[in-house]
Amino acid sequence: MRERFWELPLEQLTPGEWEALCDGCGRCCLNKLEFEDTGELAFTRVACKLLDGHSCRCGSYANRHDYVPECVVLTPKKLKEIDWWLPRTCAYRLRSEGKPLYDWHYLISGDPESVHRAGISVRGWTVSEAVLPEEDWEDYIIEDLS
């Protein structure tokens, strides 16, 4: 990978660089609720059934669509359409907005554990959708996901 590739426009990244931009927080794997009456979007503590709650990575990334067909394939083009549901701390969202990565991002810190130490990841506080009925998800809304 190129030196400081994350500072390049997203469209110029190689597939490997694009994948490496992920900070490993797991927040994009949290289920969201959209309220039809207001259009408001709320994040929940309910995670995709494939999310590993400790590593904050997909347990079957290469084959995720076999298990979760609606899982979004994030691309620079798609990012412009759906960035509103990515957390404000997301490296993809930050870079699409022309903002720098946070100091805790492993590409800056050199340590993949720094996202967890900074309290940004979902490590240890999610509930799998596999064990929780969808009608109960409202009880798991996160008020602030800053």
Q: What does it look like?
A:
There is one protein chain. Helix content is 21%, strand content 12%. Strand 3 (51-52) and strand 4 form a beta hairpin. It has a three-stranded mixed β-sheet, with no helix packed on it. It is globular, with a radius of gyration of 15 Å. It contains six helices and five strands; from the N terminus they run H-E-E-E-E-H-H-H-H-H-E. It has one domain (7-140). The model has no long low-confidence stretch (mean pLDDT 92). The chain is an alpha+beta fold and 146 residues long. It has helices at residues 15-20, 64-67, 76-82, 91-96, 106-109, 114-117; strands spanning 30-34, 41-47, 51-52, 57-58, 127-128. Belongs to the UPF0260 family. It comes from Paracoccus onubensis. This is UPF0260 protein D3P04_10290.
